[in-house]
Amino acid sequence: MNILLFGTTGRTGRHLLQLAGESAHHFTVFVRSPHRLPSPLPANVRVFQGDASDRVHIERAMSGIDGVISCLSTDKQNLLSTFTPHLVESMNKKGIKRAVTIGTAGILQSRTEPELFRFQSTESKRKSTTAARDHLAAYEALRDSDLHWTIVCPTYLPDGEASGRIRAQADVLPENPSRITTGDTAEFAFREFFREEYTGHRVGLTE
After folding, report:
1. What SS3 class is residue 100?
2. Strand extents, DSSP E, 71-179
3. Which residues sit opposite 103 in a β-bridge?
4. Is residue 23 classed as helix, strand or coil in its secondary structure?
5. Phi, psi for residue 25 in degrees, rounded to 5
6. CA separation for the pair 139, 37 (Å, rounded)
7. For 122, which DSSP code?
8. Are 139 and 117 in contact (CB under 8 A)?
């Protein structure tokens, strides 16, 4: 397979890139600034330089691709709200179905108020909802598509290597959540791309 990766210069994406280099599959990394990538890159990884907010760039990067994993995060310009509809459109044009993205626990359903997303409920301690609303727009674009999508939604996400201590649950956070490292989040997303255990779901992660 040839898998297109987004966000590989970020905190979680760096771990994803390492997993890609250890895999037998081929990978294309979509980056705005290739100089931010580690050097040398593994032999099974090639680079596509582009802007993730540009539909034309995304569509060009899809040539010869079998699926997508994205670790792109939100920014003050609502990147995910722009990127995700472009991603869905480009994948549809190319006949590509499988997509795994990294979201936020805020877009999971609340356990105490199931009719609400966590960021709307008393479970959330964040004062600003800007980032969560950007992630929500991405979720809605995938939910309303025909893609075989999964959104991995970690709780508190400190930097750290994979420990293997992962608890997962569809559409809500597992009970008594604490934290999950960037390494464990990347490893779960990478495995989920191939297993398709949570296709059509957000999946809450904690250790």
Report:
1. strand
2. 98-102, 148-154, 167-170
3. none
4. coil
5. -85, 170
6. 28
7. T
8. no
Domain extent, residue 161, equals 2-206
- Vertex 125: Cα angle to 120 and 130 (nearest 5): 55
CB 16 within 8 A of CB 72: no
Q: Which CATH number do you get for residue 144?
A: 3.40.50.720
| pTM for this prediction | 0.97
Give, as one character, the DSSP assignment of residue 172: S
Q: Which two tokens stand for residue 7?
A: 């966000």
Q: Cα-atom radius of gyration of the chain, to the nearest Å?
A: 16
The tokens describing 203, both together, are: 């999946």
Hey, what are 8's tokens?
């590989």
Query: How do the pLDDT tens digits run along the chain, 207 residues long?
Result: 999 999 999 999 999 999 999 999 999 999 999 999 999 999 999 999 999 999 999 999 999 999 999 999 997 789 999 999 999 999 999 999 999 999 999 999 999 999 999 999 998 877 779 999 999 999 999 999 999 999 999 999 999 999 999 999 999 999 999 999 999 999 999 999 999 999 999 999 999
For the chain, give the number of residues: 207
Query: Which pair of structure tokens corresponds to residue 19?
Result: 């997993």
Please state the φ and ψ torsions of residue 84, each to the nearest 5 degrees. -65, -45
Structure-token match 């999508």, residue found? 149
**4 bridge partner residues:** 28, 68
User: What total of structural domains would you count in the chain?
Assistant: 1
